[in-house]
From TrEMBL:
Transmembrane segments: none annotated. This is Cysteine synthase. It comes from Hwangdonia lutea. The modification N6-(pyridoxal phosphate)lysine is found at residue 44. Its cofactor is pyridoxal 5'-phosphate. Its EC number is 2.5.1.47. It is an enzyme of class 2 (transferase). InterPro entries: Cys_synth, Cys_Synth/Cystath_Beta-Synth, CysM, P-phosphate_BS, TrpB-like_PALP, TrpB-like_PALP_sf. GO terms for biological process: cysteine biosynthetic process from serine. PANTHER family: CYSTATHIONINE BETA-SYNTHASE.
Length: 296
């Protein structure tokens, strides 16, 4: 467990700020939850801490043990910084076309990074993580099937949104990757008020957006329940990129492309509403993408 002054206690309680320039419907307020303010720089700090902490509590892994996980980036960075603080080693498996910033950050925290061929994508990375578990005896967290993933958001993200909107949130919008964020927040908010609408951002066919995925049927996260999402809005790669750039220039919010995708969908939603209070997740910070073409 973390001591009172541990950096781990800085996970969560991220700012909720109002978008003041990009919303055209004056009867709708859009609030952005700035998850880049977590110590590991993304929303994934919440799930990573809960998965490791609960695994330790159950005795699934003991001090000095090795964890393995497939990641496209942010979960890996979160696990890389949290694991050693709790006495564990971390092996991360990710596609070789991941941004240089992400790979270097994971290694800076002391994690071993295994890069897999770009053409097999994150789904191939997941297969190799299972192989390492079987061959090396590592403990696989498996964020795509681990209920402690979404429970991290049920415990923290959902309650923060409820509290910080003075219980007035009407819509929640999130990118869907592992679907942990949208699943946990949906469960919490729906328990508080069933009329709150949960909206997922999903890439349009042919679009590649880091952090947002349309999984092949056999790879859909096991804990995902489509009934927890009231509406899915598709976003193209170009739309997500353009909105990410607008967020930086017009709102001073420097974020990654999945955040731009979520906000694009939030604005499309806002156009259909007579009134409302929308909260959208800003998953991470833009400095993770400076070596990509995102801000060119």
């Amino acid at each position: 467990m973390a001591s009172v002054n541990s950096i781990l206690n800085q996970i969560g309680n991220t700012p909720l700020v109002e978008a003041s320039h990009i919303v055209s419907n004056k009867n709708v307020k859009l609030f952005l939850k700035l998850e880049g303010d977590n110590p590991g720089g993304s929303v994934k700090d919440r799930a990573a801490f809960n998965m490791i902490n609960e695994a330790i509590k159950r005795g699934d892994v003991k001090k000095g043990g090795t964890l393995v996980e497939a990641t496209s980036g942010n979960t890996g960075i979160a696990l890389a910084f949290i694991a050693p603080l709790l006495g564990l080693k971390m092996v991360l498996v990710m596609p070789e076309n991941s941004t240089e910033e992400r790979v270097k950050t994971m290694r800076a925290y002391g994690a071993e990074v295994v890069l897999t061929p770009a053409d097999i994508g994150i789904e191939g990375s997941r297969d190799i993580a299972f192989q390492l578990r079987d061959e090396k005896g590592y403990v696989l967290l498996n964020q795509f099937e681990n209920d402690d993933n979404w429970k991290g958001h049920y415990k923290t993200t959902g309650p923060e949104i409820w509290k910080d909107t003075q219980q007035n949130v009407t819509h929640f919008v999130s990118a869907m990757g592992t679907t942990g964020t949208i699943t946990g927040v949906s469960k919490f908010l729906k328990e508080k008020k069933s009329s709150i609408q949960i909206v997922g951002a999903q890439p349009a066919d042919g679009s590649s957006i880091p952090g947002i995925r349309k999984w092949s049927p056999e790879y859909v996260p096991k804990f995902f329940d489509k009934n927890r999402v009231d509406q899915v809005i598709e976003v193209t790669e170009q739309e997500a990129k353009a909105m990410t750039q607008r967020l930086a220039k017009e709102e001073g919010v420097f974020a990654g492309m999945s955040s731009g995708g979520a906000v694009h969908c939030a604005l499309k939603l806002a156009e259909t509403l007579k009134e409302g209070i929308i909260v959208a997740i800003i998953c991470d910070r833009g400095d993770r993408y400076l070596s990509s073409s995102l801000f060119e």
